[in-house]
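Dear all,

This email documents one entry for the complex benchmark we are building for the journal club exercise. For each entry we list the sequence lines for every component of the assembly. Then comes the predicted three-dimensional structure of the complex as a token string, followed by one or two observations. Please use this as the template for your own entries, and keep the labels exactly as they appear.
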Amino acid sequence: MNDTLFKYLIQLGDNSLILGHRLSELCGHGPILEVDMALTNIALDLMGQARNYYQYAAEIEGKGRTEDDLAMLRDAREYRNCLLVEQANEDFAYTITRQFFFDAFHLPLMEAMKGSNDERLSAIAHKSYKEVSYHYRYSSEWMKRLGDGTEESHSRIQDAVDDLWMYIGELCEVSDVDQAAIDAGLGVDLNAIRQTVEQNIKEVLKEATIQIPEISFKQSGGKSGIHTEQLGFILAELQWMQRAYPNMEW
Amino acid sequence: MKNWPLWEVFIRSKNGLHHKHVGSLHATDEEMALQNARDVYTRRSEGVSIWVVESKHITASNPEESGELFEPAQDKVYRHPTFYELPNELEHI
């Protein structure tokens, strides 16, 4: 089996699964019906992407595992999502900021991944790019409205930006898996998209009148399986049914 | 959010057809109204184009005046083009 491709797919799939799960927690709990549906739509897009990656990963692994096994039966240390996506919803400002930071990275990532020498990965990128374009539009429009809105919305979005800022450095960090995937021509060179990611973030924050935090410390570890305490709680909720009743279906 | 304005949403389901009123929603401004309309009303591929209009800009007829407005047309059947035979190929008429 192609070990590099497998690990690369897991890394991509885990980002989409965990962020999708976070957003799905808001289904039926959104601040208003319109936002509830919008966030649920984004969650569904991300779940669909995770399935594409896991299905492909399960196939090339060839050990009889399925997409469900990959999503439901791994422990926290085996997850390779970045720390940003596992952070809690907290309030609407945090939810939108987390989404915006990820979208600002996800969009150039998908654009570059269209050029992967792996045909199927490239096809997934083509499909996902359209979805992610909308996510980016949605979250950046909200950043502007919350930042340049009322005094309260401004201070809450500024708090969220300050708190989540230390997680964005990891997005473009080149892990061993990334490096191997870049060398093989199937993965995206994160150094090449870093500038676009930073520019996406800075431009929107500026328009939103949000101060760019002067925090150079960055959290990382997710890509090597070292997670924040948040992931354990997510997996507990995500996996308990499969763990308690193995192989159950409905 | 209580003071977010109300918007009326019109969707064109196919190119060549006209926009149809599908419902309303709340949004902060026109760009968000468009995005909300996409998320609320086109999830099942209902549309190829969306219009949103803030509800306050719609002038509506008064239901109490429906007698004077609409009843005079009821006994004028000759205004309907029912005396022509239409070719089968014509659609949407």
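Observations: DSSP finds two helices and three strands in chain B. Chain B touches chain A at residues 1, 4, 25-29, 31-32, 35-36, 38-40, 43 (CB under 8 Å).
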